[in-house]
Automatic annotation (TrEMBL), chain A:
Parts of the chain that traverse the membrane: 36-57, 110-128, 140-163, 175-195, 216-241, 277-295
Membrane topology: Multi-pass membrane protein
Protein's name according to its UniProt entry: ABC-type sugar transport system, permease component
Family: Belongs to the binding-protein-dependent transport system permease family.
Residues in ABC transmembrane type-1 domain copies: 104-296
Source species: Mesorhizobium escarrei
Coiled coil: none
């Protein structure tokens, strides 16, 4: 649509065509209406989303007297890191006064095994569904996918009973199992679609070469699917880290994940509301997913595009 | 069908259904030791499916497969003594060429020095020694396909299976690799089964061609035989480019001589070798464009005049489209004697080289 006028070759002057006509790329103006509209919209939307974050950061760096002045948008007159330290190591939730650090380590102890376990199982699931078309594979897949559409809340109570019966209620390993199970539908779908998009002849070649189920998985498929593993890790780390519902239902106060603990700090009803500590605690809790997104941004988009959309 | 004495590969009553759809129907074929068989047919004819069945990548619905006299119907692909070359090369992208070649051997637990020896031999035969440390992504299409052939080569197999190995290459490379595959076959003397939809590949490579349609082998014969004496109209039309001319008409007997009557033209069939005693009725007369000559004058059993419609120069020769009565007719001539559009020309041919088919069944008469 840009260049309707075909650039004329240089020597066309000799046959009477206009020699000074348009040639080469069509010039574009930086301040065209299109650009102003496009970038204007982007800037406004970005500001709209960033403003709350700005308020949080600014407030967390102020002392309480300054907050009480009520100018929530003004930058801190006197920068203090006191609220951050307090949020991390001495904010009280119930009887415990060791801050968010306890919740942080709980969350780590929940997230790491859940991520590893769920991805390990889901990738093999997806691989089997994509490449080893066993009898009833489609039925199995449909059942698994239906799982993704059932609201979690429906299943909370049955799972409480199951965990109680097998003696894992309230323990971290119980929560790890719950997270792994609930990650299964979406992760299996992700891996299945990714493996389906890989050339089937590769799989056949490996079979002719004599590799079996695990041989093909570990030696052919795994090395080729790094992007989708990164995507799965991002999905799971952020999802499990941000989880509140399962955390509050299936753990006890001393094993609460960070999100639950944050809630307890922020929502405590007695005493003065320490807005700066609350803000610092919130940012601390959100830091892990934030870092994950920033570090992996490009890979994340690529993997989503490669794996989730197709099929 | 006739059975061979000691076939390298023997397919017996092979059937394959996907649900209600029958892809292969009680198919029988014997491949001799060291023979180069080409499975030729349009897409969807079941030729690749048959190859995958032989390779063990698809379970058969019925029938048996023997390789080297051993019933391998239930065997895993690796235990069948086959090597396979795929259309998309199917090289493992994360491995170097050397690792690609050795993968199957490493899986099989073959000692390292033996692996090195076999790779060296395959690399020498295929002239890919300088590429051994490269990744497949750093290779050209022709090089990749060479490596893919090498992967079958190092496994020291009895039977090579090729699944349209040249279809992903451009025309020039295709011709080059075609010759290389032929050389490879004459050097190795392995049994090779080669699937393609390209008739040139089939004609040039095959000892015998199996022309397939709808999961059934239409004709299994030497290339020249298939080209000159196709058993039915499908085979006649599928092989040959430009395609054979078909004239719809009637088979008649006048004064004790058989004629083929198309509109007001009568083609004498004195020189035609009938398969069996013919009966008068509707028939199709087929003759290849290169078996027709221009301005032949006398000496031809049949001559006629026709109008030139289109002239297509193709470099080495020229294709002339004619109207013979109301039917389209093409003639292939050398480039020197090309008529102009709308000329009226006289043509001649010998019905000995023609093929007659039953109009209803399409079978050769």
């Amino acid at each position: 649509m840009a260049d309707l006028a075909v650039p004329l070759p240089a020597d066309t002057g000799s046959i009477g065509l206009e020699a000074s006509g348009p040639r080469g790329p069509k010039p574009r103006h930086v301040f065209s209406r299109r650009n102003i509209f496009l970038y204007g919209t982007l800037i406004v939307v970005a500001l709209y989303y960033l403003l709350p974050l700005y308020v949080m950061v600014v407030t967390s760096l102020k002392g309480m007297p300054e907050i009480r002045l009520g100018n929530i948008f003004s930058p801190p007159l006197e920068i203090t890191f006191e609220p951050w330290v307090k949020a991390w190591s001495s904010a009280c939730t119930g009887l415990n006064c060791d801050g968010l650090s306890r919740g942080f380590w709980n969350s780590v102890r929940i997230t790491v095994p859940s991520v590893i376990l769920s991805i390990a199982i889901a990738s093999v699931n997806g691989y089997a569904l994509a490449n080893w078309r066993f009898k009833g594979a489609d039925t199995f897949f449909v059942i698994l996918i239906v799982g993704a559409f059932i609201p979690y809340q429906v299943m909370i109570y049955p799972i409480v009973i199951i965990l109680r019966e097998i003696g894992l209620y309230g323990s971290l390993s119980g929560l790890v199992i719950v997270h792994s199970i609930f990650g299964m539908p979406i992760l299996t779908l992700l891996f299945r679609n990714y493996f389906t998009s890989m050339p089937e002849e590769l799989f056949r070649a490996a079979r002719v070469d004599g590799a079996g189920f695990w041989g093909i998985y570990f030696r052919i498929m795994l090395p080729m699917s790094l992007p989708i593993f990164v995507v799965a890790i991002i999905l799971q780390v952020t999802g499990i880290w941000n989880d509140f519902l399962f955390g509050v239902v299936y753990t006890r106060p001393d094993t609460y994940p960070m999100t639950v603990q944050l809630n307890n700090i922020v929502n405590s009803v007695q005493g003065v509301k320490e807005y700066n500590v609350n803000m610092a605690a919130t940012i601390l809790t959100g830091l892990v997913p934030l870092v994950v997104y920033f570090v992996s941004g490009k890979l994340f988009v690529r993997g989503i595009a490669a794996g989730a959309v197709k099929g | 069908m006739t059975r061979l004495e000691n076939p390298s590969v023997s397919i017996q009553d092979l059937s394959l259904n996907f649900g209600a759809i029958s892809v292969l129907e009680t198919l029988n074929i014997d491949v001799a030791e060291g023979e180069f068989i080409v499975l030729l047919g349009p897409s969807g004819c079941g030729k690749s499916t048959l190859l995958n069945c032989i390779a063990g990548l698809l379970d058969v619905s019925d029938g048996r497969i023997f390789i080297k006299g051993k019933n391998v119907t239930w065997e895993e692909p690796k235990d069948r003594g086959i090597g396979m070359v795929f259309q998309s090369y199917a090289l493992y992208p994360q491995m170097t060429v050397e690792k690609n070649l050795s993968f199957g051997l490493r899986v099989a637990g073959i000692p390292k020095d033996e692996i090195a020896k076999r790779i060296a031999r395959a690399a020498e035969i295929l002239q890919i020694e300088p590429l051994l440390q490269r990744k497949p992504s750093a290779l050209s299409g022709g090089q990749r396909q060479r490596v893919a052939i090498g992967r079958a080569l190092v496994r020291d197999v009895d039977v090579f299976l090729f699944d349209e190995p040249l279809s992903n290459l451009d025309a020039k490379l295709r011709a080059e690799l075609r010759v290389e595959i032929k050389l490879l076959h004459s050097k190795l003397q392995n049994t090779m089964i080669y699937v393609t939809h390209d008739q040139i590949e089939a004609m040039t490579l095959a000892d015998r061609i199996a022309v397939m349609k709808g999961g059934v082998i239409q004709q299994l014969d030497a290339p020249q035989k298939i080209y000159n004496r196709p058993v039915n109209r499908f085979v006649a039309g599928f092989l040959g480019s430009p395609a054979m001319n078909f004239l719809d008409g009637r088979l008649e007997k006048n004064d004790g001589n058989w004629h083929f009557a198309v509109e007001d033209v009568r083609i004498p069939l004195a020189t035609y070798a009938f398969e069996k005693e013919p009966v008068p009725g509707a028939a199709v007369f087929g003759i290849r464009p290169e078996h027709v000559a221009f301005n032949s004058g006398s000496g031809w059993p049949f001559t006629a005049t026709a109008n030139v419609v289109v002239v297509e120069p193709m470099g080495s020769d020229t294709l002339v489209w004619l109207k013979l009565g109301n039917q389209n007719f093409t003639v292939r001539v050398t480039s020197e004697r090309t008529p102009n559009n709308a000329d009226t020309v006289s043509i001649g041919f010998d019905p000995m080289r023609a093929s007659l088919f039953d109009a209803a069944t399409g079978n050769r008469l």
